[in-house]
Amino acid sequence: MAQRYVRVQNQQGQIYYGLLQLSLSVQVLDAPPWLQGQPTELILTPENYQILAPCAPSKIVAVGKNYAEHAAEMETAVPPEPLIFLKPPTSIIPSETEIKYPPQSQRVDYEGELALVIGDRTFDCTPEEAQTKIWGYTIANDVTARDLQKRDGQWTRAKGFDTFCPVGPWIVRELSPGARLQTFLNDDPNPVQSAGVDQMVFPPDFLVSYISQVMTLLPGDLVLTGTPFGVSALRLGDRVRIEIEGIGRLENTVVGR
After folding, report:
1. Is the same domain home to 175 and 84?
2. Which residue in 9, 59, 92, 113 has the fewest CB atoms around it within 10 Å?
3. Is the pLDDT assigned to residue 112 strictly greater than 90?
Protein backbone atom coordinates (compact mmCIF):
# COMPACT_ATOMS: atom_id res chain seq x y z
CA MET A 1 0.00 0.00 0.00
CA ALA A 2 1.23 3.49 -0.85
CA GLN A 3 2.19 5.77 1.99
CA ARG A 4 -0.73 7.91 3.11
CA TYR A 5 0.04 11.45 4.23
CA VAL A 6 -2.53 12.99 6.55
CA ARG A 7 -3.19 16.18 8.44
CA VAL A 8 -4.70 15.71 11.88
CA GLN A 9 -5.68 17.59 15.03
CA ASN A 10 -5.06 16.19 18.50
CA GLN A 11 -7.33 16.56 21.50
CA GLN A 12 -5.49 19.72 22.58
CA GLY A 13 -6.18 21.40 19.23
CA GLN A 14 -2.67 21.08 17.84
CA ILE A 15 -2.46 20.34 14.10
CA TYR A 16 0.13 17.99 12.63
CA TYR A 17 1.07 16.43 9.34
CA GLY A 18 1.89 12.76 9.53
CA LEU A 19 2.05 9.31 8.03
CA LEU A 20 -0.97 7.07 8.56
CA GLN A 21 0.06 3.58 9.67
CA LEU A 22 -1.83 0.35 8.97
CA SER A 23 -2.79 0.37 12.67
CA LEU A 24 -4.41 3.81 12.00
CA SER A 25 -1.88 5.43 14.32
CA VAL A 26 -0.21 8.53 12.89
CA GLN A 27 3.54 9.09 12.94
CA VAL A 28 3.89 12.85 13.21
CA LEU A 29 6.18 14.78 10.82
CA ASP A 30 8.07 17.92 11.86
CA ALA A 31 6.79 19.90 8.85
CA PRO A 32 4.43 19.45 5.88
CA PRO A 33 5.79 16.58 3.80
CA TRP A 34 6.23 18.74 0.67
CA LEU A 35 8.49 20.97 2.79
CA GLN A 36 10.73 18.01 3.60
CA GLY A 37 8.95 17.15 6.82
CA GLN A 38 10.69 14.26 8.60
CA PRO A 39 9.23 11.61 10.94
CA THR A 40 9.42 12.37 14.66
CA GLU A 41 9.06 10.09 17.66
CA LEU A 42 5.54 11.38 18.34
CA ILE A 43 2.84 8.79 17.58
CA LEU A 44 -0.87 9.62 17.78
CA THR A 45 -3.18 6.68 18.40
CA PRO A 46 -6.58 6.58 16.63
CA GLU A 47 -8.55 7.76 19.66
CA ASN A 48 -6.27 10.78 20.09
CA TYR A 49 -6.68 12.59 16.79
CA GLN A 50 -9.27 13.83 14.33
CA ILE A 51 -8.49 13.68 10.63
CA LEU A 52 -8.58 17.00 8.76
CA ALA A 53 -8.37 17.86 5.08
CA PRO A 54 -4.87 16.73 4.10
CA CYS A 55 -3.57 20.22 3.24
CA ALA A 56 -4.38 23.86 3.98
CA PRO A 57 -3.94 25.58 0.60
CA SER A 58 -3.54 29.29 0.00
CA LYS A 59 -5.88 28.76 -2.95
CA ILE A 60 -7.86 26.11 -4.79
CA VAL A 61 -7.70 26.35 -8.57
CA ALA A 62 -10.37 24.27 -10.25
CA VAL A 63 -10.91 23.31 -13.88
CA GLY A 64 -14.29 23.19 -15.61
CA LYS A 65 -15.42 20.90 -18.42
CA ASN A 66 -12.22 18.85 -18.54
CA TYR A 67 -14.00 15.63 -19.59
CA ALA A 68 -15.66 15.70 -23.00
CA GLU A 69 -18.77 13.78 -21.91
CA HIS A 70 -19.31 16.12 -18.96
CA ALA A 71 -19.07 19.15 -21.26
CA ALA A 72 -21.72 17.49 -23.44
CA GLU A 73 -24.06 16.87 -20.50
CA MET A 74 -23.70 20.57 -19.64
CA GLU A 75 -24.71 21.24 -23.27
CA THR A 76 -21.48 23.07 -24.00
CA ALA A 77 -18.43 22.45 -26.17
CA VAL A 78 -15.09 21.33 -24.81
CA PRO A 79 -13.13 24.55 -24.15
CA PRO A 80 -10.17 25.19 -26.49
CA GLU A 81 -8.00 25.84 -23.42
CA PRO A 82 -8.49 25.04 -19.72
CA LEU A 83 -11.40 26.83 -18.08
CA ILE A 84 -10.12 27.74 -14.63
CA PHE A 85 -11.84 29.23 -11.60
CA LEU A 86 -11.16 29.61 -7.88
CA LYS A 87 -12.81 28.09 -4.83
CA PRO A 88 -12.08 29.72 -1.47
CA PRO A 89 -10.03 27.81 1.11
CA THR A 90 -12.96 28.31 3.51
CA SER A 91 -14.99 25.86 1.40
CA ILE A 92 -12.75 22.94 2.44
CA ILE A 93 -14.01 20.21 4.77
CA PRO A 94 -12.53 16.76 5.49
CA SER A 95 -13.98 13.36 4.79
CA GLU A 96 -16.74 12.09 7.09
CA THR A 97 -18.10 15.60 7.72
CA GLU A 98 -21.21 17.39 6.49
CA ILE A 99 -21.93 19.29 3.29
CA LYS A 100 -24.37 22.05 4.24
CA TYR A 101 -27.10 22.71 1.69
CA PRO A 102 -27.45 26.51 1.36
CA PRO A 103 -30.96 28.00 1.50
CA GLN A 104 -30.16 30.18 -1.53
CA SER A 105 -30.09 27.14 -3.85
CA GLN A 106 -32.64 24.62 -5.06
CA ARG A 107 -30.15 22.43 -6.95
CA VAL A 108 -26.80 21.34 -5.48
CA ASP A 109 -24.71 18.82 -7.42
CA TYR A 110 -21.78 16.56 -6.54
CA GLU A 111 -18.68 16.59 -8.77
CA GLY A 112 -16.10 13.90 -8.03
CA GLU A 113 -12.57 14.95 -8.99
CA LEU A 114 -8.90 14.10 -8.80
CA ALA A 115 -7.01 16.83 -6.93
CA LEU A 116 -3.33 17.66 -7.35
CA VAL A 117 -1.24 18.86 -4.41
CA ILE A 118 1.49 21.32 -5.37
CA GLY A 119 4.84 20.73 -3.69
CA ASP A 120 6.96 23.67 -4.80
CA ARG A 121 6.58 27.31 -5.77
CA THR A 122 5.43 27.15 -9.39
CA PHE A 123 5.48 30.03 -11.87
CA ASP A 124 5.54 30.02 -15.68
CA CYS A 125 6.64 26.40 -15.96
CA THR A 126 6.50 24.00 -18.88
CA PRO A 127 4.42 20.80 -18.74
CA GLU A 128 7.68 18.87 -18.26
CA GLU A 129 8.63 21.05 -15.30
CA ALA A 130 5.07 20.81 -13.96
CA GLN A 131 5.47 17.06 -13.49
CA THR A 132 8.08 17.79 -10.81
CA LYS A 133 5.84 20.37 -9.11
CA ILE A 134 2.96 17.95 -8.48
CA TRP A 135 3.81 16.52 -5.07
CA GLY A 136 0.86 14.16 -4.68
CA TYR A 137 -2.77 13.29 -5.30
CA THR A 138 -5.98 13.32 -3.30
CA ILE A 139 -9.76 13.32 -3.88
CA ALA A 140 -12.09 16.31 -4.02
CA ASN A 141 -15.79 16.99 -4.45
CA ASP A 142 -16.38 20.25 -6.32
CA VAL A 143 -19.86 20.76 -4.87
CA THR A 144 -21.81 23.20 -7.03
CA ALA A 145 -25.09 25.11 -6.67
CA ARG A 146 -26.08 24.46 -10.27
CA ASP A 147 -29.02 26.86 -10.37
CA LEU A 148 -26.90 29.72 -9.04
CA GLN A 149 -24.14 28.88 -11.50
CA LYS A 150 -26.59 29.33 -14.36
CA ARG A 151 -28.23 32.40 -12.84
CA ASP A 152 -25.06 34.31 -12.01
CA GLY A 153 -23.17 33.72 -15.26
CA GLN A 154 -19.95 33.36 -13.26
CA TRP A 155 -19.24 30.73 -10.68
CA THR A 156 -17.95 32.34 -7.50
CA ARG A 157 -21.14 32.02 -5.48
CA ALA A 158 -22.17 28.64 -6.88
CA LYS A 159 -18.80 27.06 -6.10
CA GLY A 160 -17.81 29.03 -3.03
CA PHE A 161 -20.19 28.18 -0.18
CA ASP A 162 -18.69 26.91 3.06
CA THR A 163 -18.41 23.07 2.95
CA PHE A 164 -18.48 23.01 -0.90
CA CYS A 165 -14.99 21.49 -1.21
CA PRO A 166 -14.64 18.16 0.62
CA VAL A 167 -11.02 16.99 0.27
CA GLY A 168 -9.16 13.90 1.41
CA PRO A 169 -8.89 11.73 3.25
CA TRP A 170 -5.13 11.68 2.58
CA ILE A 171 -2.47 12.28 -0.06
CA VAL A 172 -0.52 9.66 -1.99
CA ARG A 173 2.65 10.40 -3.97
CA GLU A 174 1.93 8.35 -7.09
CA LEU A 175 -1.12 7.44 -9.15
CA SER A 176 -1.66 5.07 -12.05
CA PRO A 177 -2.27 7.08 -15.26
CA GLY A 178 -5.47 5.12 -15.88
CA ALA A 179 -6.79 5.14 -12.30
CA ARG A 180 -10.59 5.00 -12.19
CA LEU A 181 -12.65 7.70 -10.51
CA GLN A 182 -16.11 6.63 -9.31
CA THR A 183 -18.86 8.42 -7.39
CA PHE A 184 -21.55 6.57 -5.41
CA LEU A 185 -24.72 7.79 -3.72
CA ASN A 186 -26.03 6.21 -0.53
CA ASP A 187 -26.13 2.40 -0.68
CA ASP A 188 -26.44 2.05 -4.45
CA PRO A 189 -23.61 -0.26 -5.62
CA ASN A 190 -23.74 1.24 -9.11
CA PRO A 191 -21.61 4.36 -9.56
CA VAL A 192 -23.21 7.56 -10.79
CA GLN A 193 -19.84 8.63 -12.18
CA SER A 194 -17.15 6.34 -13.55
CA ALA A 195 -14.19 7.33 -15.72
CA GLY A 196 -10.46 6.88 -16.03
CA VAL A 197 -8.49 9.97 -15.09
CA ASP A 198 -6.68 9.52 -18.41
CA GLN A 199 -9.90 10.65 -20.11
CA MET A 200 -9.22 14.26 -19.15
CA VAL A 201 -9.08 16.69 -22.07
CA PHE A 202 -6.10 18.49 -20.51
CA PRO A 203 -3.84 16.25 -18.37
CA PRO A 204 -2.43 17.26 -14.97
CA ASP A 205 0.98 18.45 -16.17
CA PHE A 206 -0.62 20.66 -18.82
CA LEU A 207 -3.08 22.09 -16.29
CA VAL A 208 -0.37 23.01 -13.79
CA SER A 209 1.73 24.59 -16.54
CA TYR A 210 -1.24 26.57 -17.84
CA ILE A 211 -2.27 27.81 -14.39
CA SER A 212 1.33 28.75 -13.55
CA GLN A 213 1.35 31.15 -16.50
CA VAL A 214 -1.54 33.01 -14.83
CA MET A 215 -0.73 32.83 -11.12
CA THR A 216 1.99 31.51 -8.87
CA LEU A 217 1.12 28.22 -7.22
CA LEU A 218 2.48 27.75 -3.70
CA PRO A 219 3.37 24.58 -1.77
CA GLY A 220 0.19 22.96 -0.47
CA ASP A 221 -2.08 24.56 -3.08
CA LEU A 222 -4.75 22.40 -4.70
CA VAL A 223 -5.63 21.97 -8.36
CA LEU A 224 -8.99 20.27 -9.01
CA THR A 225 -8.82 18.63 -12.43
CA GLY A 226 -12.48 18.49 -13.46
CA THR A 227 -15.35 16.04 -13.12
CA PRO A 228 -16.49 13.30 -15.52
CA PHE A 229 -19.97 12.64 -16.90
CA GLY A 230 -22.77 11.82 -14.45
CA VAL A 231 -23.27 14.87 -12.24
CA SER A 232 -26.66 15.10 -10.57
CA ALA A 233 -28.49 16.67 -7.66
CA LEU A 234 -27.89 15.98 -3.99
CA ARG A 235 -30.71 15.83 -1.49
CA LEU A 236 -30.77 16.28 2.27
CA GLY A 237 -29.60 13.11 3.94
CA ASP A 238 -27.63 11.83 0.93
CA ARG A 239 -24.23 10.24 1.46
CA VAL A 240 -21.87 10.89 -1.44
CA ARG A 241 -18.73 8.76 -1.76
CA ILE A 242 -15.96 9.38 -4.27
CA GLU A 243 -13.36 6.70 -4.84
CA ILE A 244 -10.15 6.86 -6.87
CA GLU A 245 -8.09 3.73 -7.41
CA GLY A 246 -4.82 3.97 -5.54
CA ILE A 247 -5.98 6.75 -3.22
CA GLY A 248 -9.08 5.72 -1.26
CA ARG A 249 -12.52 7.15 -0.61
CA LEU A 250 -13.90 10.56 0.31
CA GLU A 251 -17.35 10.39 1.93
CA ASN A 252 -19.66 13.16 3.14
CA THR A 253 -23.29 13.54 4.16
CA VAL A 254 -25.63 16.34 3.04
CA VAL A 255 -27.49 18.28 5.75
CA GLY A 256 -29.56 21.44 5.91
CA ARG A 257 -28.04 24.68 7.06
Report:
1. yes
2. 9
3. yes
Work out how many domains the chain is built from and give that number: 2
- The CATH number for 124's domain is 3.90.850.10
| Same domain, residue pair 125 and 193 | yes
Q: Cα–Cα–Cα angle for 82, 6, 200, nearest 5°?
A: 20
* Residue pLDDT, tens place only, 233-254: 999 999 999 999 999 999 999 9
Reported confidence tier of residue 176, pLDDT bands at 50, 70, 90: very high
108, 159, 208, 227, 241 from 151: Cα distances, Å = 13, 13, 29, 21, 28
Residue partners of 78: CB distance under 8 A and separation at least 6: 65, 68, 71, 201
Looking at residue 71, its pLDDT comes to: 64
Would you give the DSSP letter of residue 79?
P
